[in-house]
Specification:
Elements: H1 18-25, H2 37-45, H3 59-63, E1 75-78, E2 84-87, E3 91-95, E4 103-107, H4 125-141, H5 144-162
Antiparallel strand pairs: 1-2, 2-3, 3-4
Length: 163
């Protein structure tokens, strides 16, 4: 079979037929995180990943984007500047300055471009509280509590350097 031309900008590896090209080009509408990359690469390479990793292998999703083996329903992100986000299929909640410098809440079903911040909208108080609770739990799972002083100092140091 002749190779299907795929631009280098979307090539994720050797693509030698249309079936493989579709694997790399189709959208993925499931929650994944950067911490899932290491376990995925280890799984694909056939080596054991350390038990201490927080992520899960994406291998089931590579075969079937609707796989029932993938149960993750949220993605957590923390930035070096003190921003933290939790994202579900329906919502994205972000807090800045560890919750002290503002919040953002976006309804991804009605506002996929994230143009209207609903954090102060009283109609979404329950959603905001629920997502904030989930964010704090996920942050604690990532060892934030035991490293808080170091993390906060690094954020504050970067702010002083920028001034």
């Amino acid at each position: 079979m002749n190779p299907v031309p795929v631009p280098d900008s979307v090539r994720a590896g050797p693509v030698d037929n249309l079936k493989n090209a579709r694997l790399f080009l189709r959208p993925l509408l499931r929650s994944t995180e950067h911490v899932d990359l290491y376990p995925t690469l280890a799984d694909l390479a056939g080596v054991s990943a350390p038990d201490t990793l927080q992520g899960k292998s994406l291998k089931p999703l590579l075969a079937d984007t609707e796989s029932s083996a993938w149960a993750k329903d949220q993605a957590f992100t923390i930035s070096r500047s003190g921003g933290e986000s939790i994202r579900t299929n329906d919502w994205r909640f972000t807090q800045w300055g560890f919750g002290e410098k503002g919040m953002e809440l976006y309804n991804l079903k009605n506002d996929p471009g994230e143009f209207t911040n609903q954090a102060r909208n009283p109609d979404y108080t329950t959603v905001l509280k629920t997502l904030k609770k989930r964010l704090l739990a996920k942050r604690d799972d990532a060892s934030f509590a035991s490293n808080k002083a170091v993390i906060v100092e690094k954020v504050n140091l970067k702010k002083r350097i920028k001034r």
